[in-house]
Write a structure and sequence with these properties.
Blueprint lengths: L1 H15 L3 E7 L4 E7 L4 H12 L7 E7 L2 E4 L17 E7 L6 H4 L3 H16 L7 H16 L22 H5 L5 H13 L6 H12 L8 E6 L6 E6 L3 E5 L9 E4 L3 E7 L2 E6 L7 E5 L2 H21 L5 H164 L11 H84 L1
Helix pairs in contact: 4-8, 5-7, 5-8, 10-11
Length: 577
């Protein structure tokens, strides 16, 4: 009965306990989940991850997990669930390089191994776990860009194409040490990147690791220790070369080093750790760590690095030799493939250039044909236009010839008119001269008549004076004769009248002559005035006719000049055509 109860309980407990558990493994470039059996050891899970990744150089790597405030590596000989792994589901492990090679070019055989080391070391440099100078950071960044983007192509890799990539350490000192902007750093990286043309991805990653392995903090695992319980804190560094003691504020230059070839034994007791040199004359070095777990981790790293140190100095195993031979063949094949690809690429680029050249030539010929067609159309249009212009020019030539004939006739008419005008002008000038001579003669005649009128007036005045003197004498005679007549009988009245008339008759005769002379003089003066006025009118008419003739002559000269200009224009048009 008791046995039945125990077997029932065991069956019940086995039903309750799960047979598998979930695991998430994070590599440098991927995440994987596995369903593991409860009985699996650390080696079973590690081998599964290595097979999945395709990794054969398993001795460099391990599965790391977090324990409280530190980390630990999964032990291959113990079951996974029996170790201090997190109780989460799934349990997270990081597949990382646990040990680093001394010479990456000689020890790293597989391309996947190189790639995983490249990604891990790159992350450590960017996260400042490995110190790197600004100059080396730029060079390493250029190889990282070559590994990611391939050969530099200025047509494709425009400025700013690295803006989203993390290529330089995050610390401000690297970016701001030279007072350079992000664009200036990118330009500097691109300048180096352009020089790596022709380097394959695995070669660029190997060049990156070859530079990185010379950095002081490459492959070193640091632990806080104290030499004595009351001493100042120190740092212990474990790497492929040996053990190193550092000051807490300086991880670059160790104060003391213990190479693996000079260490006889390493042991620990709880928190105390002891390093015994191979030379017994040298003192044993002891230090203390904060936790027992840390001492176990230090010892685990020391054993692994020492084993690899001794392994490097021995002949490679058959497996490693086969791996190296296969890797060599693979590299040769890849190199040949790259050469073939490069030749094909060159041939393709050459063909593309030839194609582009042919397309360019085709486009050029098409443009030339289009331009020729356009030129032909323009020439045809020009020919039509020239024919039309020739027809118009011919019509214009006929019209100009007709106009030239008309102009010639007009010229002849104007020449005849000019001759007539000259003759008329000569006649008018002659008439004008004759009129002027006549006017001079009339002026002389009027002056002569005026002189004669003055003489007549003078004669009239003398006659009046003589008459006045005669009257005075007659009066004097009359007065002297009156006394004598008193003695004689008076004459009859008739006789007196007669004598008076006889005495006054000479006076009346002289008055009539004077009046007649005055009337003649006045008449001649009036005639002279009328003739002078008539001559002045004639002179004015002659002047107006002369002015009109001058105007007509000027117009004729202008018309002759215009005809001459028309002839010249016609000649020029004829020459142009």
């Amino acid at each position: 009965l008791v046995g039945g109860i125990l077997s029932w309980r065991s069956r019940k407990s086995s039903k309750k306990q799960p047979k598998t558990f979930k695991v998430k493994v994070v590599t440098m470039d991927a995440e994987m989940e596995f369903s593991c059996e409860v009985k699996w050891k650390g080696k079973d899970l590690f081998d599964l991850v290595c097979r999945t990744v395709g990794l054969r150089e398993t001795w460099f790597f391990g599965l790391r997990y977090t324990v409280k405030d530190t980390y630990a590596w999964l032990k291959p000989e113990k079951r996974v669930l029996d170790q201090e792994v997190p109780k989460d589901s799934p349990i997270t492990f990081h597949f990382l390089a646990k040990f680093f090679p001394e010479k990456v070019e000689e020890e790293l055989v597989q391309e996947i191994t190189q790639h995983l080391f490249f990604l891990q070391v790159k992350k450590q440099i960017l996260d400042e776990e490995i110190f790197c100078s600004p100059e080396a950071s730029v060079l390493l960044a250029s190889y990282a860009v070559q590994a990611k983007y391939g050969d530099y192509d200025p047509n494709f890799h425009k400025p700013g194409f690295l803006a989203q990539d993390e290529l330089l350490p995050k610390r401000v000192s690297v970016l701001m040490q030279y007072q350079m902007t992000a664009d200036m750093w990118e330009e500097k990286i691109t300048a180096w990147y352009a020089e790596h043309r022709g380097i394959a991805r695995d070669e660029a990653e190997m060049e990156y690791l070859k530079i990185a392995q010379d950095l002081e903090m490459y492959g070193v695992s640091y632990f806080a220790i104290t030499q004595n319980k009351r001493d100042t804190d120190l740092l212990l560094g474990v790497d492929a070369q040996g053990l190193h003691i550092y000051s807490p504020n300086s991880k670059l230059n160790p104060n003391k080093s213990f190479p693996w070839s000079g260490i006889r034994n390493i042991s620990y007791s709880e928190k105390e750790f002891t390093i015994k040199p191979l030379d017994k004359k040298k003192d044993v070095f002891k230090f203390y760590s904060s936790q027992l777990r840390v001492n176990k981790l230090i010892l685990q790293l020391c054993i692994g690095n020492h084993d690899l140190f001794m392994r490097r100095r021995k002949v490679d195993s058959i497996e490693v030799q086969q791996m190296k031979a296969q890797a060599k063949e693979e590299k040769a094949r890849k190199k040949m493939d790259r050469q073939i690809l490069a030749r094909e690429k060159q041939m393709r680029e050459k063909a593309e250039r030839a194609k582009e050249e042919m397309e360019r030539r085709l486009f050029q010929l098409q443009d030339e044909a289009r331009l020729a067609n356009e030129a032909l159309l323009r020439s045809e249009e020009t020919a039509d236009l020239l024919a039309e212009k020739a027809q118009i020019a011919e019509e214009e030539a006929k019209l100009l010839a007709h106009k030239a004939a008309e102009a010639e006739q007009e010229r002849q008419r104007l020449e005849v008119t000019a001759m007539k005008t000259k003759e008329e002008k000569r006649l008018m000038e002659q008439k004008m001269r004759e009129a002027e001579q006549l006017a001079v003669k009339l002026v002389e005649q009027s002056e002569r008549r005026l002189k004669e009128a003055d003489h007549l007036k003078q004669d009239l005045t003398e006659a009046k004076d003589a008459e006045r003197r005669a009257k005075q004498k007659l009066l004097e005679i009359t007065k002297t004769t009156y006394p004598v007549s008193y003695s004689t009988p008076p004459a009859p009245p008739e006789a007196a009248d007669c004598s008076y008339e006889s005495a006054s008759s000479p006076l009346d005769f002289k008055d009539s002559d004077m009046k007649r002379l005055s009337m003649e003089i006045e008449r001649e003066r009036l005639e002279y005035m009328e003739k002078s006025k008539h001559l002045q009118d004639q002179l004015k008419e002659l002047k107006s006719e002369i002015e009109s003739l001058k105007l007509e002559e000027q117009q004729q000269q202008a018309s002759l000049y215009s005809v001459h200009i028309v002839r010249k224009v016609h000649c020029i048009n004829t020459l142009v055509q």
